[in-house]
Amino acid sequence: MSRTEFIIATAIVLFIAFSLGWFANWLVHRFTRVAQSDVDELERMSQELHEAEETRDQAIIYLQQREAELTNQLSQTEAELAAAMEGLRDARAQLG
Questions:
Q1: Is 64 helix (H, G, I), strand (E, B) or coil?
Q2: Tell me: the pLDDT tens digits for 24-39?
């Protein structure tokens, strides 16, 4: 085998190796790339999650406000009950 034949054979082998490597890389990227529909689906799910978190936060705030109102109303009712019980006690003391 002459020097020229060796260089040509080496070039052909290297070209085939390069071609196989490029083809393997193309196949890997072809099968592992994310489809646009999947990206759109993830974006939609992300938006829905964000909206759900906002709704949850609003519900928590509403419940905290409602709890404060009911606690205040309960305190007022207990104060009225205590006053009524004291008035009843005074009325019984005056009768007895």
A1: helix
A2: 999 998 888 878 888 8
Q: How far apart are CA 42 and CA 33, in angstroms?
A: 15
Question: Could you say which DSSP state residue 35 is in?
Answer: P
CA dist list (Å): 20 to 10, 15, 32? 15, 9, 18
The band of 64, judged by pLDDT with boundaries at 50, 70 and 90, is very high
Stated pTM of the model:
0.56
Helices (H), the chain: 3-32, 36-95
User: What is the rounded distance in angstroms from the CA atom of residue 47 to the CA atom of residue 60?
Assistant: 20
